[in-house]
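User: Could you go from structure to sequence for me? I need the amino acid at each position, not a summary. Structure tokens:
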């Protein structure tokens, strides 16, 4: 009898605590569709932290189903918008591996490219007061490959056109970075290194505007090395393909900070 009385008192106490305490988080009690709606609303209102936590809890409570799949994709986007690139990249990769036939898988590939595109932006900044040989373009290259994979797999995707534009931008920027390294070597009178780096630009980035700069550097570096034939060959190719280049007018290479800055990509994601 005494044990039963203690049990009843404990139940009454717990009931009182629950009535007097904080209200339960709706994310913990609502059905999956309503939890998803809460996450979506938070995302649309710019409350990225709340949106991420809601999506994460939805996935934990409801491991399977269409709402869970969409929540995982939107979680990756939320993390990307919140500048949590590592988390976003992990989330979108997990989505791609788990749902390779999802109806929005093309967007997942596009989002993966966007994440690395954002991380590459800081690496493709203006060349000022730094050693150009130490620049790391890994994220830019990975972003290019991500977008390339999207275009190859899903050429008719609504995101393919935007991906191609970003690929052109990245390719030009990577070529510009290589030209920057070649110019750095040229200024340091490391003419062999300058010529080799410029030759790499001509071979790898043939269809970029920076190929003309690379030919100019090759011509100048070979001239400094006394390799007149190689210098003349590079100059002749430059004349044929870039007849208006400043090098042919005696105005190249530029001064240290006279860089032609690429126009930043307009992010419409």
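Assistant: Here is the amino acid at each position, in order:
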């Amino acid at each position: 009898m005494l044990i039963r009385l203690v049990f009843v008192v404990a139940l009454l106490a717990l009931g009182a605590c629950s009535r007097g305490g904080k209200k339960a988080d709706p994310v913990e009690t609502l059905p999956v569709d309503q939890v998803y709606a809460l996450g979506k609303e938070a995302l649309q209102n710019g409350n990225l932290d709340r949106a991420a936590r809601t999506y994460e809890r939805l996935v934990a409570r409801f491991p399977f189903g269409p709402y869970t799949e969409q929540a995982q994709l939107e979680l990756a986007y939320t993390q990307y918008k919140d500048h949590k690139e590592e988390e976003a990249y992990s989330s979108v990769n997990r989505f791609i591996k788990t749902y390779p036939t999802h109806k929005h898988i093309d967007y997942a590939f596009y989002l993966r490219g966007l994440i690395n595109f954002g991380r590459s932006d800081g690496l493709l900044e203006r060349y000022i007061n730094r050693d150009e040989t130490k620049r790391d373009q890994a994220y830019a290259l990975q972003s290019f490959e991500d977008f390339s994979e999207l275009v190859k797999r899903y050429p008719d995707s609504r995101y393919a056109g935007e991906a191609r534009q970003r690929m052109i931008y990245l390719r030009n920027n990577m070529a510009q970075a290589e030209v920057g390294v070649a110019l750095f070597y040229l200024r340091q009178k490391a003419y062999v290194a300058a010529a080799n780096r410029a030759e790499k630009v001509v071979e790898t980035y043939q269809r970029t505007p920076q190929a003309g700069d690379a030919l100019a550097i090759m011509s100048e570096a070979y001239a400094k090395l006394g390799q007149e034939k190689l210098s003349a060959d590079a100059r002749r190719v430059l004349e044929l393909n870039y007849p208006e280049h400043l090098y042919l007018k005696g105005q190249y290479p530029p001064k240290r900070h006279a860089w032609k800055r690429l126009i930043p990509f307009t992010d419409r994601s």
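One structural detail worth keeping in mind: The CA atoms of residues 172 and 207 lie 9 Å apart.
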